[in-house]
Design goal:
Oligomer: single chain
Structural class: mainly alpha
Number of strands: 0
Helix content: over 70%
Strand content: under 5%
Order of helices and strands: HHHH
Distance between the termini: 106 Å
Radius of gyration: 40 Å
Largest sheet: none
Shape: rod-shaped
């Protein structure tokens, strides 16, 4: 047997199997309404598959949004803590720079603070953290 014969035989068997599958798909069964049941079943399966895919995507989007909101909340909390630490260190720097005697009262210290521009910034920061400097 030659390669050409082998090739022809495989080609014929492929064409026979194709014609069988075509004949199977060409002979659809009809229901009482005259519709093609196999096409209806395929459409129904396709619709169900698409619905499952859409539901899966929606579920995953919700999971991602929930996870992301947790990360964003943690990041915001960390940012807030950093701002608070920064404000405390700025106030401590202001105290060390301006208050030379430890026996000043708060009223006396406030008069000194008000002359410095950094105090205005600290007042704004203190409002953010709900601390009253008055």
């Amino acid at each position: 047997m030659t390669d050409d014969d082998d090739y022809d035989r495989k080609k014929k068997s492929r064409s026979r199997s194709k014609s069988r599958s075509k004949s199977r798909s060409r002979s659809p069964s009809k229901d009482a309404g005259g519709k093609d049941e196999s096409v209806d079943d395929e459409e129904k399966e396709k619709r169900i598959r698409e619905e499952r895919i859409a539901a899966s995507i929606k579920k995953r989007e919700e999971e991602v949004a929930r996870e992301l909101s947790g990360h964003l909340h943690a990041r915001e909390k960390e940012r807030e803590q950093h701002r608070k630490t920064e404000a405390i260190s700025a106030f401590q720097a202001l105290l060390t720079d301006l208050i030379k005697h430890p026996d000043y009262s708060w009223k006396e210290a406030k008069k000194i603070f008000k002359k410095d521009s950094r105090f205005v910034i600290l007042v704004r920061i203190s409002r953010v953290f709900s601390h009253d400097l008055d």
